[in-house]
Amino acid sequence: MNEATRLAAFEETMVPHLNAAYNLARWLTRNPHDAEDLVQESYLRAFRFFDGFDPASRGGDGRAWLLAIVRNTCLTWLGQKAGAASVSVEFNERVHGSTGERDNAEEVLVRNAKTDALRGCVEALPVEYREIVVMRELEELSYREISGVAGVPIGTVMSRLSRGRARLLDCMEAK
Description:
It contains eight helices and no strands. The chain is mainly α.
């Protein structure tokens, strides 16, 4: 395969999953700038090893394969950064559109407080629960896809998801 054909195939297969890659990296690193850097590094790694990507065995779209690379890149980075103080930067979801209806100030404040509380609870989860919750609830990956990305059995995925959801519920009830 020549370089132009390889690049076109990579762009067609992997670029549509850029938002999912960033979302996973953002939740794992808790920092948008680090997430951007790690997604860029992940895409470089994915391109380097794209010849080894087999769409027939990977479900065709490449999302799970790419997210596995993003996950591994983030976990390696987090392991290297262990012990260092991590800086947390607020992620502003208010930018992501509106309902189109005019809400009164009290409703907006209550909704924003709930969103901030949930975000804080998700970020407080241990990384092994947080990554599973993000992949299932935000990226809507199947248990099988999550199993492939995380490299754990499906039973472990279900267990971590259950425990992560329970911790989220406990955290939200405490707030």
